[in-house]
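Quick entry, no commentary yet.
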Amino acid sequence: MEPLSVTAPKSTLWQQSTRLFRATGPGLLMAAAAIGASHLVASTRAGAEFGWQLAWVILLVNLLKYPFFAAGARYTAATGESLLHGYQRQGRGYLILFSILNALAAVASTAGVAMLTAALLTQFIPLPIDLLALIVLLASLLLLVLGHYRVLDKVTKVIMLCLTVTTLSAAALAFNAESILTPGFVSPSPWQWAHVGFLVAMMGWMPAPIEVSCWNSLWLLEKQKQQLVTPKQALFDFNLGFITTAVLALVFLSLGAMVMHGSGGHFFPSGAKFAEQLIQLYSQVLGEGSRYLIALVALLCIFSTTVTVVDGYSRTLALSVQLLRGEEASERGLNIIMLLVSALGLGIILFFKGALLPLLQFVMTLAFMTTIIFAWLNYRLMTSDNLAPSARYGLAMRLLSWIGMAYLLGFAALFIYWKWLG
């Protein structure tokens, strides 16, 4: 008698899609961290001041930074360890360098996104922006300490869906709106010496600081504790989040270009005034009745960014300390670092006294000036002998990486000359 052969039933398209969606999370969390100040502020402002002229720059920046962001998902999926473990394998000095720059970025970025969240809260709660920033940071800490990654994963997916649908709807309505450009209006050129600072700031957080790749790496490890995530699923999740950030950056630029460009209006540096302008931008195309709905969606968007920023930076700092000191990971150590980063971020907010745009300009510029080092660390890791040959970057990714690092280094040198020598 011949043995019976048992063939496993093929999965339906719905079952495959469901498994793929359940495997998503780290990439969407990365998108939530990215779609904050760089999109709500930098992209919208770029469109408002220069129309569509910087659209290709946004796409180019995302393309040139892609290999450095992809390192987080690809390295962890291939090795089962984080990028920080990889830095340590390269040499203790590399991990120390990353940790110092990451600590500076953690405090500055936390201050920037917390102040923007507080500015949007002023549309609902008539309290000083400093006090609202404190409330935002305490709420973020409470969510992270009590809910951990599982809650963060679920909440972020809902917020990202709401934000994407609402923003795309606003852009679609804006395309059909009557043009506000006056006859004979000539758009100012962004390619002037005076605008170098803005260009560098915009590119610094577009789509996000490169150290976010380390967060993606750690979030992927957390996701793998809950379920099996294959390398293919991890890369799909990352690409989904990365492409979403690039598309929405263009959508936010389009809103600024179609609703504010040519109107003669400029964004206020004050946090509360800026938030009011931002909400007005949406309500002009969606209708005044949508004002509070849009304010709520924008608030949820930037609040999710604040939560992911506090969580991501704190996780990387905690793991850095653990690896450098040879200690075991502990929730207590992570919570202490979260509290310390939030407290120092609040100190920076108090220093800037509610001046949102100058603070964000400073944070984004700092991100751009340190980006080349983070990019080099990730490239070195993805081409090292510690990685299996099949997992290393091939010729195309190596070439794109070198072009990306040349661009980052070139603009950093240009900014230094513009700021201190020109």
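second:
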Amino acid sequence: MIDLTLPPRWHSALRAELDQPYIAELQGFLAAELAADTPVFPAVEDWFAALARTAPEDVRVVILGQDPYHGAGQAHGLSFSVRPGVRVRPSLRNIYKELHGDLGIPPASHGYLAHWADQGVLLLNTTLTVRAASPASHAGRGWERLTDAVIRVVDAGPQPVVFLLWGAHARTKATLVDASRHCVLQSAHPSPLSARTGFFGSAPFSKANAFLAAHGRGTIDWALPAIDQHGSISA
């Protein structure tokens, strides 16, 4: 059986959820997928990378994606992010364009978003795995119930959080969030198919920082440091 043990602080917060019958069904589905000939992305050790990088009490911003990238070498468990040396994907390029327009921060030369995650930006996909070259192939198998529970943990936390919900799929999750306590910023998805219909010009980064500052939670340094091919900050 596939082990779905979460990072310790999340595991404690979601203990009751992990006992639900759908978890065993999800484990069985994933075991069958891993035994098949088609690869599954990201690698097993990266399934919970977003949760490992950002503990519940540290979350200041949630950026919600949908599927992991389905090309070889792309997904590594942080939504929209790719590891150093991997070509920046189109949606992330548009995120960088909006970041430049919003805060004047030039686009990074890489797509590795760990710097955001380490500051409390939870880079969460609603489905945490995908079959190679087959978008949405692991949708509806239980991941969404688990990641909804993750969102509810963040919503129930004592500190105000910014939720960046980009695109129709992410925006359905607004019902899980108490907008009287948190900041919910909704817009079109940064995909090349939709970025010009409401993502560009939405100023999510400055709005997020304004909310955080107003509630005594500091601000996010959205400027990504230069890194080498191993993911280390360049001198």
